[in-house]
Amino acid sequence: MSLVKMKEILIKAEEENYGVGAFSVANMEMVMGAIRAAEELRSPIILQIAEVRLSHSPLHLIGPMMIAAAKEANVPVAVHFDHGETVGKIREALKLGFTSVMFDGSSLPIEQNIQETKRIVSLASTYGATVEGEIGRVGGSEDGSVDIEIAITSVKDAKRFAEETEIDALAVAIGNAHGEYKGKPNLRFARLKEIYETTNIPLVLHGGSGIEEAEFREAIQKGIRKINVATSTFNRVLKTINEQVPFNYYFSYHERVVQASHENVSKHIKMFQSEGRI
Q1: Which of 133, 143, 148, 198 fits a 20 to 30 Å CA distance from 178?
Q2: What is the pTM of this model?
Q3: Is 82 a catalytic residue?
Q4: Which long-range contacts (CB under 8 A, 24 or more apart) does 219-223 make?
Q5: Contact yes or no for 142/52 (Cβ under 8 A)
Q6: C-alpha closest to that of 78 among 147, 163, 123, 12
Q7: 2, pLDDT greater than 80
Q8: Is the peptide bond before 109 cis (omega within 30 degrees of 0)?
Q9: Taking 70 as the threshold, does the pLDDT of residue 145 lie above it?
Q10: 170 φ/ψ angles, rounded to the nearest 5 degrees
Q11: Which of 102, 97, 104 is nearest to 127 (CA)?
Q12: Are strands 45-50 and 169-172 parallel, antiparallel or unpaired?
């Protein structure tokens, strides 16, 4: 139980054919709500924060909080640094005790993406940490500031990338996008199945907030093991708070943020079928 490597969580998910939610957090209340949901549902969970969010939630503050929460949990919790863009911040996360990091080189030419990802794999190995990489380009951007066009992951590139970098998990672009979807997602399940059968490593689905339950289930059947959820949790918190403004007591506000996070995480744990896997 407690703080574990993300690789351990993904291996079990692979063996038992379910998905594990990777929930982005921005403050203590969201951390508390996510852990509460995982413990109530007896589910493994991944807490994560992306580098682009650090201007709002500085790593030296939120990182130790996430790790402390994981250590005290009575279910397996991995702490993941998502969409790492700089070696400096990835190294800082590893030094703090994050058990997993992602290097996002998806905007780079494949040769450079491979070389930079290999550097991160080497660095993370000294800490015994899991590494996630990305090939292809997931739409949108993690903070919603840029409308990045989707570049569907090629099977050939995915195979080469996985073999040469020796990463533990691979994020793929199959029609998924970060942030709010502008229309109904069009996920390429046939491409996903082919990538999974060719690479034979746990796959990661970014941009999970706008995808339907049936689509999640199909993606899991075709190799997705880690599913990122951010926007829907942030939106659930906002909706909950806006419904009850004004608050007359700070700790009523505090508890509603915890509860909103708990509700959204619980919903996704059930969709991903990780409930009761402890």
Answers
A1: 198
A2: 0.93
A3: yes
A4: 219/19, 219/187, 219/189, 219/192, 220/17, 220/18, 220/19, 220/272, 220/273, 221/17, 222/189, 222/192, 222/193, 222/196, 223/192, 223/193, 223/195, 223/196, 223/197
A5: yes
A6: 12
A7: yes
A8: no
A9: no
A10: -125, 120
A11: 97
A12: unpaired
Give Cα 192 distance to the centre of its chain: 18
Q: How many CB atoms lie within 10 A of CB 250?
A: 8
Look-up of token digits 């852990």: 35
Length of the chain: 278
The three-state secondary structure class of 28 is helix
Q: Which amino acid is at 264?
A: N
What tokens were used for 255? 């508890």
The SS3 call for residue 235 is helix
- Pinpoint the alpha helices (H) of the chain: 6-16, 28-41, 59-72, 87-96, 110-125, 155-165, 189-199, 213-221, 231-244, 250-272
Query: Over the chain, what is the mean pLDDT?
Result: 92
* 223, two tokens: 């190799």
Total Cβ atoms within 10 A of residue 136: 22
Residue 152, both tokens:
């569907």
Which whole number is the average pLDDT over 80-92?
Answer: 97
Name the nearest CA neighbour of 175 among 144, 149, 198. Answer: 149
If we measure between CA atoms, which residue out of 160, 205, 48, 172 comes closest to residue 106?
172
- Scan for tokens 């070696």, then name that residue: 87
Whole-number Å distance between alpha carbons of 246 and 239: 13
